[in-house]
Design goal:
Layout lengths: L12 E4 L9 H10 L4 E4 L10 H14 L2 E6 L19 H18 L3 E3 L11 H20 L4 E4 L13 H11 L4 E6 H6 L4 H8 L3 E6 L15 H10 L6 E3 L7 H4 L11
Parallel strand pairs: 1-2, 1-8, 2-3, 3-4, 4-5, 5-6, 6-7, 7-8
Helix pairs in contact: 1-2, 2-3, 3-4
Amino acid sequence: MTGPAGERHSLPYTANLSILFTELPLLERAQAARAAGFTKVEYWWPFESADPSGAEVDRFARSVEQAGVQLTGLNFYAGDMAAGERGLVSWVGREAEFATSLTVALGLAERLGCRSFNALYGNRIDGVAPSEQDDLARTHLATAAKAAEGIGAQLVLEPLSGTPAYPLKTAADAVAVLDELGLDNVRLLADLYHLAVNGDDLDTVIVRHTPRTGHVQIADAPGRHQPGTGELDLEGHLEKLQAAGYAGEVGIEYKPDGSTVDSLAWLPYERRGH
């Protein structure tokens, strides 16, 4: 399938502004993305804590609104990412933080029209049985899914690379959790970079799991930089995803090799927005 600019697919892109445009303060990135041609953006958790002040939340929301872009995705609070934490969904003892961030995320979604939440599962922690963590994760995911359903939103569950303590490493790992939950609005986040680095065959993932996929993200591998810097046929994989029925956004979630604007040379300006 060929897109309007001659590409092999016509899936819409959304710019992840927690990893792109980091040359700028967070609250200036939506405007920069719009200037670069994007009309859709996504973020990890955009605050320092699970419980930002009302003023912080308002400043973030206004930065998106004033830029004239659509917020397509938002992570729940994932803990201290710089220190290696990767989510609170399964973290026994931090239930209050998860609940607080869920409330904040839902409020932002209602204001900004976001309908997809990335619920990072959380690392295995010392002194707690994995089964206890998994029980808590199912409870948290069910609670969050019901809340999201109230505004017509989904949760997505993401396998990650680079964090040995994070238990969801392949698409099958995440889908096993989806099967246990049995909820239609909890789906797979297929980050093609993470899956490839962890050894998943991307063509097999696409064939088996596209019907369960709620969001897709891309970066080239190795390196996690822009398409064309590594070995993945990202255009080909996106073409196959679309042919298999995926019709959602593709999150651009790479570390630019060079400035963000220069790193976007692979994506024609007219393909960045809709």
